[in-house]
Amino acid sequence: MDLPTQTSPDEPGEVMRRRRKGIYVLPNAITLAALFSAFYGIVMAIDGRFEAACIAVFVAAVLDSLDGRVARMTHSQSAFGEQMDSLSDMVAFGAAPALIVYIWALKDMGKLGWIPAFAYLAGAALRLARFNVNIGVVDKRFFQGLPSPAAAALVVGLVWVMDDAGFKAATQNTWLAWLAFGVTLYAGLSMVTNAPFYSFKVVGGRRSVPFVVLVGVALAIVLIALDTPRALFSIFCLYGLSGYAVYAWRRFKGKPVSVIATSIDEPEEKGLHR
């Protein structure tokens, strides 16, 4: 009588037990913290506490910069985490800034106030979607369009600076409401342009930087500590203009201005087109 032979795990007919897929706790917990911070900012804006609302968005930006790095450091990257991060970004840097500035300055404009708020919200959605699909073919030194955290910092930075100056709501100041209108619209449209905004991904990595850069970072930290809202708003105003300056300079010099590479092998090198 022949006994049944045991099937080797290497044989094609072997039915392998599938490993259960889990969810990594640490990076997703940071992402959830960023999402909660954005939710908190919206609630504070509804309650009229705009300083707390703006700080919450900046906290969300800091947390957003950490979750991906933590995932890479702990080797816990996952498709679930990527999707979770995108959804969190949409709330933190799309919906939250749009609602905060709308409540603070635009709601008394009626339907006219919807224009910059929705343009900003739509710009954030389009920016995040484009980033997700182009992530493998973009020059890593630059972002294609103004990144959504910087756009959010530009919008809520204005609110924070003016709130700190005593303008608790811009609805009673026509000039301030129109200023918020323009800044919000500018941030929203800048997210969907092709202007190259420096990503700073090579700083502190495999490329060295001049000593003066460290001096500049130290001075920036001091300025932020002395007057946080104005310093942050000034920094992000300069950054929000830098992409167009780089675009104009490259165009003037006849250099490629697109950050989309013709090849995904070396997107940082020469494969860029105009």
C-alpha termini separation = 76 Å
CATH homologous superfamily name? CDP-alcohol phosphotransferase transmembrane (TM) domain
CATH architectural name: Up-down Bundle
Unreliable spans are 11-17, 262-274
* Shape call: globular
Number of domains: 1
Stated plainly, the CATH topology is called Four Helix Bundle (Hemerythrin (Met), subunit A)
Number of strands: 2
Helix content: 55-70%
SSE blueprint:
Elements: H1 25-46, H2 50-73, H3 79-106, H4 114-134, E1 142-144, H5 148-164, H6 174-190, E2 196-198, H7 211-226, H8 228-253
Antiparallel strand pairs: 1-2
Structure at a glance:
The chain is 62% helix and 2% strand. It has 274 residues and is mainly α. The protein has one domain: Four Helix Bundle (Hemerythrin (Met), subunit A) (Up-down Bundle), CATH 1.20.120.
Descriptive keywords:
274 residues; mainly alpha; Four Helix Bundle (Hemerythrin (Met), subunit A); two-stranded antiparallel ribbon; 8 helices; 2 strands
Describe the structure in your own words.
The chain is mainly α. The protein has one domain: CDP-alcohol phosphotransferase transmembrane (TM) domain (Four Helix Bundle (Hemerythrin (Met), subunit A)), CATH 1.20.120.1760. Helix content is 62%, strand content 2%. It has eight helices and two strands, in the order ααααβααβαα. The protein has helices at 25-46, 50-73, 79-106, 114-134, 148-164, 174-190, 211-226, 228-253, and strands at 142-144, 196-198. A two-stranded antiparallel sheet has the order 1-2. α3 runs antiparallel to α6 and α5 packs antiparallel against α6.
